[in-house]
Design a protein that fits this description.
Elements (H helix, E strand, L loop, with lengths): L3 E4 L13 H9 L3 E5 L10 H6 L3 E3 L1 H6 L3 E6 L3 H6 L5 E5 L6 H9 L3 E4 L15 H20 L7 E3 L2 E3 L3 E5 L3 H12 L3 E6 L4 H7 L3 E4 L16 H16 L3 E4 L14 H6 L5 E4 L17 E3 L5 E4 L8 H18 L1 E2 L2 E2 L8 H4 E4 L2 E2 L2 H6 L12 H6 L2 H4 L9
């Protein structure tokens, strides 16, 4: 095998790493050479020695960039690093391709092949083992429940002791997609009384299968591709009013609601935050620079309100569980690499149903249709594109953003 794979040390705020020693070991057995930038795995407790034992060579950053055919990262590297990439090299990661399409144009000019996980077609079953958004959202949902329990000043389970009985905590999860379901499962395992709420009626069965109660929304907003659609202003108002009642009855509110391509919906307005009892915990997984699901939430900050509620802006939950999230991410990367290597050489088949979307740039061209649209480039019609598919592709689904990359 002539392919050299490498990974780089991420920026200081990021604890994850794109390759784990376990995956390196499997890649080396498959014949790959692996280079790991020194200290890449430190924050995830993967030592340089562990990578060496797995068969990798620990090198400086410049060598990890210049000597590799395929470079795997978590977040898009800084501009100075991108500028060093050469024609024919492959970069795989959460590249924020739709947020910063101009960076992809630059990579196309450099003839770098960029694979951006936000572009993965998640509903194709073959792509599920490459789905970083799901693997990282799952970690984030789990950690969100733990962070809430840790900040909560009472017990999660019911406790019967000689000194009295403590009631179980009441946990409400708003948005029951991948992260929300994992938060529900974790809060249930901690013994809390859990309910879930979503505007997609299809999620009722999933919530109930975890033993939680489903609070049916009066607003039904299933969109295309299994996602929710954006609510109208009236629907949002109606939703906030109905949620206000549910929120008051709960001790912990974990919010995960996202709408592809849009700013996260505001589910908990300021009035609901003000009405919350002292000690109420809000964990906002949607907290971002664009805003979150909870009024006043700030990414990576915890705020105590005047009425004694706590709002945790849980933007970096996957990074806060770096060993588990990196292990899963690395397996996703391994599957992607298998799909671009044939007969010991790189083989980027841009006609493949998964790669045609996952590949942002190849051979000097912008490949992904979503990225082409973001750059106002013409999109080539697909031979098998039916009228139904076109109708389904509302703006919301066509334009899914990189909103979950920090999940
Ligand atoms: P997401 O991150 O886009 O959103 C999280 C949740 O928020 C979703 O359940 C959504 O319905 C909900 N939401 C959005 N607006 C809301 C609002 N105003 N009020 C309340 N809830 C709101 O979603 P996700 O976790 O990525 O997954 C969404 C769906 O896609 C799920 O059904 C999931 O099972 C499915 N999915 C399928 C695949 C696959 O087929 N391989 C992969 C990933 C996800």
């Amino acid at each position: 095998m002539s392919i050299v794979l490498s990974t780089l040390k991420e920026a200081d705020h990021e604890n994850r790493v794109a390759l784990s020693p376990a995956v390196v070991s499997r890649m080396v057995k498959d014949g790959y050479q692996v280079l790991v930038e020194k200290s890449s795995g430190e924050a995830a407790y993967f030592s340089d020695q562990a990578y060496t034992d797995a068969g990798a060579k620990v090198v400086d950053r410049n060598t990890a960039i210049s000597d590799a055919n395929v470079i795997a990262v978590i977040d898009r590297p800084d501009d100075a690093t991108l500028a060093k990439l050469k024609s024919g090299q492959v970069l795989i990661g959460l590249l924020s391709s739709l947020i910063d399409p101009d960076k992809m144009e630059q990579l196309a000019k450099q003839k770098v092949t960029a694979l951006s996980f936000e572009l993965l077609p998640r509903t194709i079953s073959r792509a599920q083992s490459m789905d970083v958004l799901s693997s990282q959202a799952s970690v984030a949902g789990y950690k969100a429940a733990l962070v809430a329990a840790d900040d909560f000043t009472r017990y999660m389970p019911m406790m019967i002791t000689a000194a009295g009985t403590a009631k179980p905590a009441k946990v409400l999860v708003l948005g029951t997609g991948v992260a929300g379901l994992q938060a529900i499962g974790t809060a249930k395992r901690l013994g809390a009384e859990v309910s879930g709420y979503d505007v997609r009626p299809a999620s009722k069965g999933e919530v109930e299968s975890l033993g939680a109660k489903f609070l049916t929304s009066s607003v039904s907003a299933a969109g295309a591709g299994g996602y929710a659609r954006q609510l109208s202003a009236e629907e949002q108002q109606k939703q906030q009013e109905e949620l206000a009642g549910f929120i008051k009855q709960n001790d912990i509110i974990i919010t995960t609601a996202q709408v592809p391509g849009r700013k996260p919906p505001l589910l908990v307005p300021e009035t609901s935050v003000k009405e919350a009892s002292a000690g109420t915990i809000f964990v906002d997984l949607a907290a971002s620079d664009l805003g979150g699901n909870v009024a006043g939430s700030k990414p990576s900050e915890t705020i105590t309100t005047d009425n004694g509620a706590r709002i945790i802006g849980a933007q970096d939950m996957a990074s806060q569980l770096p060993t588990a999230s990196s292990e899963m991410y690395a397996k996703n990367v391994q599957t992607v690499i298998k799909s671009i290597v044939k007969d010991d050489a790189l083989n980027i088949d841009t006609d493949d149903d998964v790669l045609s979307e996952l590949v942002a740039t190849h051979d000097g061209e912008i490949i992904s249709d979503r990225l082409r649209k973001a750059l106002n480039l013409p999109v080539k019609p697909k031979a098998d594109e039916s009228t139904d598919t076109k109708e389904d592709s509302s703006d919301d689904t066509k334009d899914q953003s990189d909103k979950k990359e920090g999940a």
